[in-house]
């Protein structure tokens, strides 16, 4: 368990989780609510995202084995998903329009932020692949760190948006999108090469 491996694992997880890209959706889904309610929603969203992610860290490989899916197959499928998520960020469109509709309650807002925004198919793929490469404990440390930073960003969403501004958040989102496309291509290539 060396620092370089933790850094690679954390960076991969954080880029895919991309809490900056979740800020606009979080603000839209919680518009009109008090700051205390926003904090509770951020807490729930990160907790749900964390539970889902941890389940796949510990049982992702077992699930693949039960379904007779090889790691190479999953890399290719995950690479396609990552590339599509990156295209969404870079080109500014969405494959799932429901994310941008007004939420009926803060609970549903928390669930929508948790999944698919924070813990979506791209992150689940990466967690399984990273666990195979680096082991459970290293990935768990990286995941918990990324979740903590995401929680800080979402919990202070109003302040973060004021501090950074819409343009900076948009630039971050575009850069993260390009990185996601590149990571998706790398996953597909690694899957094809076996």
Task: Describe, in plain words, how this protein is organized in 3D.
The chain has 8 helices and no strands. It is mainly alpha-helical. The protein has one domain (3-193). It is globular, with a radius of gyration of 16 Å. The two termini are 25 Å apart.
Keywords:
mainly alpha, globular
Q: Count of helical segments? A: 8
- Give the N-to-C terminal Cα separation: 25 Å
Q: In percent, how helical is the residue content?
A: over 70%
Quick check: average pLDDT? 81
Helix/strand class: mainly alpha
Count of individual beta strands: 0
The helix-strand sequence is HHHHHHHH
Number of structural domains: 1
* Assembly category: single chain
Query: What proportion strand?
Result: under 5%
Which radius of gyration do the C-alpha atoms yield?
16 Å
User: Sheet bearing the most strands, described?
Assistant: none
Low-confidence stretches: 98-103
Instruction: Give the CA-based shape.
Output: globular
In short:
84% of the residues lie in helices and 0% in strands.
Which helices and strands occur, and which strands form pairs?
Elements: H1 3-17, H2 19-29, H3 35-66, H4 71-91, H5 106-118, H6 121-134, H7 136-155, H8 157-193
Helix pairs in contact: 1-6, 1-7, 2-5, 2-7, 2-8, 3-5, 3-6, 3-7, 4-6, 4-8, 6-7
